[in-house]
Amino acid sequence: MIVLVIGGLPSAHAADCADLTNLKINETNLLSATIVAAKPPLPEYCRVLGYVRPAINFEIRLPTKDWNGKFLMAGCGGFCGALDSDNMNLTNGANIGLMRNYATLSMDSGHWGASVADGRWAPMTTWWPSSTGASVRSPQPLTSPR
Questions:
Q1: pLDDT per residue over 84-98, tens digit each?
Q2: Distance between CA 46 and CA 68 in Å, rounded?
């Protein structure tokens, strides 16, 4: 939903970019929207930071010129743990698409940690609502009280 609203813009200019923070999207907080100057191999883009409640952080990058009309969403690998949009690998990296004038989105899946191998958050999450409204049970801690 967020991407359809934001990614559908033909291009983003400084005033248009800043105005994105005024959008009202259910269950979503848009924290900032700023123009980032071109730095080869990346074009100039509008950087939008926000989160979907309760805890999924995201970054959207919109080319300000020559948008190809396409969108690339970069997910996370492993336990994720960080919003790593500048990663040049395909896992959670937005720049691969941005270099080709795609509107891009990367996110952290709601997981916070030091690396893709850091799963310290998992035992603390026992029930999590899924996108269908059903509850999903997360893995139990390896050790449990007796």
A1: 788 776 666 789 899
A2: 15
